[in-house]
Amino acid sequence: MFNKKKNNDTEENIMSTENPSENATPENVENADAQEATEQVETQTAEEKLQAEVQQLNDKYLRLYAEFDNYKRRTQKERVELLQTAGKDVIVSLLPVLDDFDRALKAMETATDVTPVKEGILLVSTKLKNTLAQKGLKDVESINKDFDTDFHEAITNIPAPSDELKGKVIDEVEKGYTLNDNVIRFAKVVVGA
């Protein structure tokens, strides 16, 4: 009997927990409905906030993507323009030298004495070298210097006239140049062996 009573009590507890609305009073039902409605409104506003935030982040992403795309186009265009006009300032600075050469050629046609023509050509040559030096061009010193593969290209080896010239540059076939301390042409040299 005792067991039967215990089973009946648990059945009542289970039934009361399974269907709370049967035991609910009208006040409890109204409170539950109001609470459920409040939760739904809160859930909807939270969803709306999240959707608005997602939309805002998406807009921000699209703007950044468009800005980066414009940046890439602009830098590519600038690079092409730079390559097309890279030597413009050097060419412009050499135009006076070209004019001097034209004047020298005209003077050679009518010149009877060679000495002034030689002096004029030397002046033009000096002007050209000075203009290029201003742009960063320097000759590589080679003769009687130690052979250096960073600046020299050996054309041939010949027996050295003296022991002091072994491993040194004896003759220069073609001058070497550096531009802003970077080798742009190696000096072609003859090395003493």
Automatic annotation (TrEMBL):
Biased composition range(s): Polar residues: 13-28
Subcellular location: Cytoplasm
One Pfam family cited in the UniProt record for this chain: GrpE
Domain of life: Bacteria
InterPro entries tied to this protein: GrpE, GrpE_CC, GrpE_head
Subunit structure, interactors included: Homodimer.
Matching PANTHER family: GRPE PROTEIN (PTHR21237), GRPE PROTEIN HOMOLOG, MITOCHONDRIAL (PTHR21237:SF23)
Function: Participates actively in the response to hyperosmotic and heat shock by preventing the aggregation of stress-denatured proteins, in association with DnaK and GrpE. It is the nucleotide exchange factor for DnaK and may function as a thermosensor. Unfolded proteins bind initially to DnaJ; upon interaction with the DnaJ-bound protein, DnaK hydrolyzes its bound ATP, resulting in the formation of a stable complex. GrpE releases ADP from DnaK; ATP binding to DnaK triggers the release of the substrate protein, thus completing the reaction cycle.
Family of the protein in this entry: Belongs to the GrpE family.
Protein name: Protein GrpE
Source organism of this protein record: Pedobacter rhodius
